[in-house]
Amino acid sequence: MKRSALFNHARTLSVLSLGIGTLISLAGCDTLNDWLAPDRVNYKGAETAPTLTVPSDLSTADISQRYAAPPKLNTLGGAAPRSLTPAGNATVGVPTPQDPFGMHVERDGDRRWLVVDGRSPDQLWPQLQEFWQENGFTLKTDAASTGIMTTDWAENRANIPDDWFRKSIGKLVDFAYSSGTRDQFRTLVERGASGSTDISITHSAMEEVLTGQDKTSSKWVERPRNPALEAAFLAKLMEKFGLTDAQAKQLLTDATPATATATADPTGGPSTLDLSEPFDSAWLRVGLALDRTNFTVDNRDRAKGLYYVRFSDSMAELKKEGLLGKLFSGGTPKPSREFMVNVRPKADTVTEIAVVDANGQVDTSTDAQRIVALLHAQLN
């Protein structure tokens, strides 16, 4: 486990005054059962030093708010009423013969999303706000109108070893301890078929790596998204919606796989794809595929079939938001170019995907072709 540069400084001072040696690091766990263990997540305890202002395919998983969330929209309804399932659960979803718990999980590769039956995004949005806040996160983006909810960067304090130094002396300067990682989560909420709501959770991560011969300096680098951590939070969300821990894990195991594949449109060249499924399901899968790439969905307009995306530079975001604070110098990072990914019906069971320009024409630039190629890979 890595330590922050600030921690290294605090440790040096402690050694000089108390003659105390080095600290012990712990190895991580990568299985779903490991991540579902209650002690693997503790974002609630995360605090930042005042001067810094600063996851087999599955394996359990707890975050804060730099920007205040806007007030709840008047159009949002009240909390969804609970329904009693045959198993005796009081759930948010509406039970059906096909879904006795009122919800089920679907998947595309290692990505999973929750389908809540009989509930609209408006009914579930306030509970999603509560969910992240209850797990120790603050919301950086809270846009019910677009169905995008993003947490601020946060630290999993459970990753910090509670060794003898920290127990005896370290509590006095606990803010100086760092797990050496930061996590962020994006929730996409989409209106599904037959009055259901689709909810997906995507993880982004950064890690502090010690550099130099004496390992006294550090730099922040991107870590791969953790599908197990995403699944763990999806399980926690199902528990908030009324399921037991065992029921949530079973739904994850029984996730229904997507089977439709994307092919290059012979008439559109390398800039256009055909996805063999109706618009409703294609719209969701394209959004999930974008989240699996290095592109971030800033906005979306389902009526126009448009995703507004930009290249995601996590390091620039950390600098801009001040998480790394005074550890960095220089100007504000330049905003990256925005692209429009168009998802439009081509036939009853075929949907066309392309990057378009401001006039709605297919963008044939190298960057646009790169995005289409990435989507092609993610949708197959």
From TrEMBL:
<dbReference type="InterPro" id="IPR042268">
    <property type="entry name" value="BamC_C"/>
</dbReference>
<dbReference type="Pfam" id="PF06804">
    <property type="entry name" value="Lipoprotein_18"/>
</dbReference>
<protein>
    <submittedName>
        <fullName>Lipoprotein</fullName>
    </submittedName>
</protein>
<feature type="signal peptide">
    <location>
        <begin position="1"/>
        <end position="27"/>
    </location>
</feature>
<keyword id="KW-0449">Lipoprotein</keyword>
<dbReference type="InterPro" id="IPR010653">
    <property type="entry name" value="NlpB/DapX"/>
</dbReference>
<keyword id="KW-0732">Signal</keyword>
<feature type="region of interest" description="Disordered">
    <location>
        <begin position="72"/>
        <end position="98"/>
    </location>
</feature>
